[in-house]
Amino acid sequence: MTGVARAAEYAPARDRPTWIAYVQLSLFASFLYAFGATQALLRDEQGTTRSVAGLHGTALAIGGLLGAMLTTTVIERWGRGVVMRASAIATAISILVYSTPSAALPVSLAGAALACFFGTLLLISINAFLLDDQGNAGPAALTEANALASLAGLIGPLAVGIGAATVLGWRTGLWVLVVALLALEAWRGRNLAVFGTRGLAAHEDAPGRLPRHVLWTLGMLMCFLGAEFCLTFWGADLLREQCGFGPAAAAASLGTITGGMLVGRLIGSRLAQRVPTEALLKGSILVALASFALVWSFTAWPVVLLGLFLTGVGIGVHWPLGVARAVRDSGGMTDRASASASIAGSIAIGVAPIVLGLASDTIGFHRAFLLVPALLVVGLVIVVIRPVPDATRQ
Question: What count of other Cβ atoms lies within 10 Å of the Cβ of residue 256?
Answer without folding.
Answer: 22
